[in-house]
Design a protein that fits this description.
Radius of gyration: 22 Å
Distance between the termini: 66 Å
Helix content: 25-40%
Largest sheet: 7 strands, mixed
Structural class: alpha+beta
Strand order of the largest sheet: 17-18-16-15-21-22-23
Shape: globular
Length: about 500
């Protein structure tokens, strides 16, 4: 019998993961390549787009080699991307005109404050998003205003602007196709979630010409096929493209309205599926699109947290109180509680639900009895508290009780954190057997886009449970912890006058 596989390309902030799955979505092999973070100035974060492309090729080759897979055996490809990270390139030369500006980048914060003061409501009504440097529009505008010769090249029709889905498809097809998916476009502040297309009024507001943006397609559809001379000598259908978090929601089997997942990584991202019903929230949550399929958009309520796993990295690389993240579980369990210590890791300000770019990281409650174990425990707890704040708001906006949350990402191996998360949420936490939910999700999307499955229901049985945590904390303890946490958050927000 001929072997056939699905290929999931997960292009993330710190690296590219490529996983090959068999037709039952078992992991066959995996490849990974790290990418460098470029920090030209304080608050600026960039990537080299050519390094991103190189990481895709090398991670894919590694997956082929490790699994002894022939590229001709790949049935379809799904790609997911960082979301708001954006870049511009010259269509004639195929070269970037500037580095990709990463979603974490803060260089346009002041411009966002000006735009927000004038156009906040209209942008929110059209996009479901708040005005913040997190999103793509002001990043595009910065490149247009600061790269010499770009406006002349636009007049000549030579410039393409896109999130990384468009760049990946451009490279995979050898420059043949300049397209993007609607779910990623929804992260730009230029896409109307009501009409499902670029919005002329928003483009005018940000002074971005429509002709430099890609044609938009459904996330799950026959998008294109690879160019053999650019991708391992084969033509492979590209049948899915989405933001990494939407792909993770799909990978977690959260197809039904009311299902929710959290991905733990550098930051944490909580997505609640609201089906074909768009729920607009004015309490700091985002309304967006997880995927589009056969012309129908699946909406989400979303909460993004800038710093979770990155705080543990800071303990290792900044404070040097740990040698690896693996040590944190035992250290947290070695003390009976946090010793009154609370750590708000607002290294880049606060995202949902505060959206305060002026907030700064703060550790409060330190006494002479505070140990490094208390600091480590407070760091892990900070992730759970931030998620608790946001899940409460998600539940209130949704209007229905949420009893189970599915989780994925590196931090889910930490049993202390997972139990504490369950306790502070008062909710069951479920961890899947395949923790690489993002690559799994985009591969499953690609199978659906290829019509190997008739509908979402046929994919529901693929998800399987590895482990679950149930809450075991008294309500009075939970209330005291959250009261103190919120006091610490308040101190963090007031650290710099704005």
């Amino acid at each position: 019998m001929k072997k056939q596989y699905y290929l999931g390309i997960d292009q993330g902030t710190t690296g590219t993961t490529v996983i090959i799955f068999d037709k039952k979505f078992n992991v066959v092999s995996k490849g990974y390549r790290e990418i460098k973070q470029i920090y030209p100035n304080p608050g600026w974060v960039e990537h080299d787009p050519m390094e991103i492309w190189d990481s895709i090729l090398k991670a894919t080759q590694q997956a082929f080699d490790c699994g002894n897979v022939n590229p001709k055996e790949i049935r379809s490809i799904g790609i997911d991307n960082q979301g708001e990270t954006v870049m511009l390139w010259n269509k004639k030369t195929g070269k970037p005109i500037y580095n990709a500006i990463v979603w974490q980048d803060k260089r346009t914060s002041n411009e966002c404050e000006v735009i927000k003061s004038k156009y906040e409501d209209i942008i929110w009504e059209k996009t479901g998003l708040i005005v913040d440097s997190y999103f793509s529009a002001t990043k595009i505008k910065w490149i247009l205003d600061n790269v010499e010769g770009v406006k002349e090249d636009i007049e000549n029709g030579d410039i393409a602007a896109g999130t990384l889905d468009s760049w990946m498809i451009w490279k995979l097809t050898g420059g043949r196709s300049f397209i993007g998916d609607r779910a990623t476009a929804a992260r730009t502040l230029l896409f109307n979630i009501n009409t499902g297309d670029w919005d002329d009024e928003l483009l005018s507001l940000f002074d971005i010409p429509k002709k430099i943006l890609p044609e938009l397609k459904d996330s799950i559809s026959y998008l294109e096929e690879t160019n053999p001379s650019d991708f391992f000598g084969v033509k492979i259908p590209i049948t899915a493209s989405a933001v990494d978090q939407g792909a993770a929601l799909f990978g977690q089997g959260c197809f039904k309205r009311g299902s929710i997942k959290t991905t733990y990584g550098t930051g944490a991202f909580i997505l609640l599926n609201t089906g074909n019903k768009k729920i607009m929230s004015k309490n700091g949550l985002l309304t967006s699109i997880s995927w589009s399929y056969k012309g129908e958009m699946t909406y989400i309520l979303e909460a993004g947290i800038y710093i979770t796993g990155a705080a543990t990295q800071w303990l290792r690389d900044g404070l040097k109180v740990i040698n690896s993240a693996d040590e944190t579980e035992a250290m947290a369990n070695s003390v009976k509680d946090n010793g009154g210590v609370y750590f708000v890791p607002a290294f880049s300000g606060l995202a949902a639900p505060k959206w305060d770019q002026y907030a700064r990281g703060i550790i409060v409650g330190i006494t002479g009895g505070t140990s490094k174990e208390h600091i480590v425990r407070a760091t892990l707890e900070s992730t759970a508290y931030q998620i608790k704040n946001n899940v409460e708001l998600l539940q209130n906006s949704f209007g229905e009780e949420i009893k189970i949350m599915r989780v994925d990402g590196g931090a889910t191996v930490n049993n202390f954190l997972m139990q504490f998360q369950s306790d502070i949420l008062d909710m069951e936490i479920q961890i899947p057997k395949i923790n690489e939910a993002t690559a799994l999700g985009i591969a499953k999307m690609s199978a659906l886009g290829l019509e190997d499955f008739k509908n979402l229901e046929e994919l529901e049985t693929i998800w399987s449970l590895k482990k679950k945590f149930k809450p075991n904390m008294e309500e009075s303890v939970r209330e005291d912890l959250m009261k103190n946490w919120n006091k610490a958050m308040d101190r963090s927000e007031k650290w710099i006058d704005n």
